[in-house]
Amino acid sequence: MRRQQAGIGQVLMVVTLVVVLAITGLIGYKLYSADPADQASGSTMTGNTDTTAPAIESSADLDKATTILNDVDDDATDQSDSAKLDAELDSF
User: Fold this and answer.
1) Is 6's pLDDT higher than 70?
2) How far is it, in rounded angstroms, from Cα 61 to Cα 80?
3) What's the distance, Cα to Cα, between the start and end of the chain in Å?
4) Which pTM does this prediction carry?
5) Does 38 lie in the same domain as 54?
């Protein structure tokens, strides 16, 4: 009778592994496909929300303008600016 139950440990291990992987995959899928609006509500925005640069009349105004322009700056803008500058340099 013992010979008939020899492989049950391996079968249960495989079934347990499949169940754990399925649960992990389901949780991962739910997190990946979550609504972006839900994810954004948990984050906090830092920086100045005013995107216009002030008139520069003193060094404090220059610092404020630099801060505002740095907050607005992003990678997509940097790449397009670099491409334009490279094109202009090639034309020389």
Assistant:
1) no
2) 28
3) 89
4) 0.35
5) no
- Per-residue pLDDT reduced to its tens digit, 19-28: 999 999 999 9
- Of 51, 49, 54, the C-alpha closest to 64 is 54
Dihedral angle of Cα 29, 35, 37, 38, to the nearest 10 degrees: -60
Within 10 angstroms of residue 26's Cβ, the number of other Cβ atoms is 10
Cα 91 to chain centroid, rounded: 37
Alpha carbons 33 and 45: distance in angstroms, whole number: 23
Same domain, 23 and 51: no
List the structure tokens of 49: 């929300």
